[in-house]
Write a structure and sequence with these properties.
The protein starts with 11 loop residues before the first strand and ends with a helix. A hairpin with a 4-residue loop joins strand 3 and strand 4. It has a five-stranded mixed β-sheet with strand order 2-1-4-3-5. A two-stranded antiparallel sheet has the order 6-7. Helix content is 61%, strand content 7%. It has 22 helices and seven strands. By secondary structure, it is α+β, with helices and mostly antiparallel strands. Helix 2 crosses helix 4.
Length: 449
């Protein structure tokens, strides 16, 4: 991650503290937070905490002081800072001045050890980082206001700093910030409708606490909305309540299936983002389209195809049902939407969508590139089959024996048709002359008789 220039040694900072430190906070930082964010981040937090007593209101401290305290380069200090922001221990506010930037670092109290284990996401992360044996030891042991202007809140969120899997280089695609933001929040209205359709009391499932846990597990395991819905259905009890432990296990199983790995570790999201953007550069228009379909959301795709108009609730409901029922990933669903609209004169037919989606689901398509190639193959196959059918319907050449008389008569008719036509007036005169001649001949014979 290239962070050079993000902050400068001469940039100043003030320190604020929100609330009092809980009892046992040092143990919490060492045993519970440090496995997640590393020693540099914990050292930075403790340094800021104890330096707060020494700061002067009129003069901000410079970041050069932190470099001397921690014996770290400034880029490592910046990385430690954003990890503290992502885990929820620090908020950063920026004030730009004519000389240099001044930051306000607001320290957030860490959880007390016993409170730490009440947070579903942090508990799961610690479990995966230290292993089951150490986790059980820790759990069994521990579970017995500012005067100056803050400035603009530029604190990094958890999803901006961390992700929970390391993709293979050959599978990477560029990630845009819009895509990352969309995966953090569940559209609970969709889930509410899904529960209603199955006659499940949604109010018992979608409580405030359960929504918080659903959102956390979605971020932790990098799951799509339809995958979280699937995990919810797996974790329902006979009394139509949500078994939280079963839900967590279901999310982890989906994670293992999706990314073919069982270890959940925090990694810096910026590092993977930079690597993806530099390693993959679309060249042709088709690659650019595939790249767009891989990263955009179905909702945004509909709006882009509608010249920016808002996607209708009906279309979104249809897409959601198809994705949920067939388990199609978002990139594959994007290709399907694009394909169906082109084939149906820009009409989103639910029946047509479901028919193709069931076929693509059986094909186990995962990426937009796979879906695009599969769609081309099927279209070419259909075109070839249609052409063969049309050729089969052509009138076959006749092999029957034609009689000679039929052939000669046709030939005479063709020859006659080629002769010049007789003048109609001349023909009438000849006929009239023959009639006069015949009439006078008959009169003479009558007189002689």
């Amino acid at each position: 991650m290239n962070v050079i220039g993000k902050i400068l040694p001469i940039d100043g900072y003030y320190i604020l503290q929100k609330g009092n430190m809980p009892e046992g906070y040092a143990k919490s930082l060492t045993h519970l937070y440090q496995p997640l964010i590393g020693i540099n981040a914990v050292s930075l937090y403790q340094t800021l905490l104890h330096e707060k007593e020494l700061q002067q209101e009129a003069t901000p401290q410079t970041h050069h002081t932190l470099m001397n305290y921690l014996n770290l380069p400034l880029d490592d200090i910046y990385r430690a800072r954003v990890k503290l922001e992502g885990i929820g221990l620090l908020k950063t506010y920026e004030n730009k001045t004519e000389k240099n930037d001044v930051y306000m670092y607001e320290l957030i109290s860490p959880f007390a050890p016993n409170e730490f284990f009440k947070d579903a996401m942090l508990t799961q992360l610690l479990y995966h980082h230290v292993g089951q044996a150490k986790f059980e030891v820790l759990k069994n042991y521990y579970v017995q206001n500012p005067s100056s202007q803050k400035g603009i809140n530029i604190t990094s969120s958890f999803s901006d700093v961390f992700q929970t899997f390391q993709p293979h280089l050959e599978d990477v695609e560029p990630i845009e910030s819009d895509t990352i933001d969309e995966t953090v929040t569940i559209d609970f209205s969709w889930m509410q409708q899904m529960l209603k359709q199955r006659m499940i009391p949604e109010k018992k499932i979608l409580t405030l606490e359960n929504k918080r846990i659903l959102s956390q597990m979605m971020v932790l395991y990098d799951l799509a909305a339809y995958e979280v819905e699937k995990a919810v259905l797996w974790a329902l009890t006979a009394e139509n309540t949500l078994d939280i432990d079963e839900f967590k296990d279901a999310c982890h199983d989906l994670f293992k299936t999706k990314y073919n790995q069982s270890v959940v570790k925090l990694t810096d999201r910026q590092q993977n983002t930079v690597k993806r953007q530099t390693d993959y550069k679309p060249t042709s228009k088709e690659e650019q389209l595939i790249n767009e379909l891989q990263t955009i959301s179905p909702k945004q795709l509909l709006e882009d195809l509608s010249s920016g108009n808002r996607a209708s609730e009906q279309d979104l409901r249809v897409i959601r049902e198809v994705m949920t029922n067939q388990g199609l990933p978002s990139p594959v669903m994007n290709v399907l939407i694009h394909y169906v609209l082109l084939q149906s004169n820009m009409k989103l037919s639910k029946a047509y969508l479901e028919k193709i989606a069931s076929h693509w689901s059986r094909a186990n398509l995962k990426t937009a590139k796979e879906a695009m190639a599969f769609a081309k193959t099927e279209k070419n196959r259909y075109k070839k089959t249609t052409t063969n059918k049309q050729n089969n319907y052509k009138k076959p050449a006749s092999h029957e024996v034609v009689p000679e008389w039929f052939t000669e008569r046709k030939k005479k008719q063709q020859d006659a048709s080629k002769q010049p036509s007789v003048d109609a007036d001349k023909e009438k005169e000849e006929v009239a002359a023959l009639l006069r001649e015949f009439t006078s001949s008959n009169k003479n014979n009558h007189l002689q008789g």
